[in-house]
Amino acid sequence: MSETARNTATTSASARRAEDPDDQISLGVHTASEGRIVVAVGGEVDMLTSPQLRTVVLEQLDTAGAELVVLSLDGISFLGTSGLAVLVEMRDAAIAAGVTLRLACNARRVLRPLTIAGLIPMFDIHDTLGDALAPA
To answer: pTM of the predicted model, to two decimals?
Structure first.
């Protein structure tokens, strides 16, 4: 069993609300190890849902002792321009907070919009969550 799996303490928070069927994003947050937080993003990240992503990630950047926040993006089914804008905003917020931000993703549906927008060089992107959580 990997070090990550053994040290995972789940404190799940979901942005999907049952009373709002048009809300197509899910956000799960857990602490992989001390100072290392994972935000698992699923569903559609667009103009309607990107504010929820922003809120959850900003909360994690403000968490006492946070050193690394990893956005696990392979669960995303659609990444629109608003989602791209939030990712750039979160990158800037992480830098300002002194927290490392990494993306864990190898899904074409996420990497293609990042590539087309010319944003790949701005992010520290890893193929797997384990790689993203590994010490630099």
So the answer is: 0.84
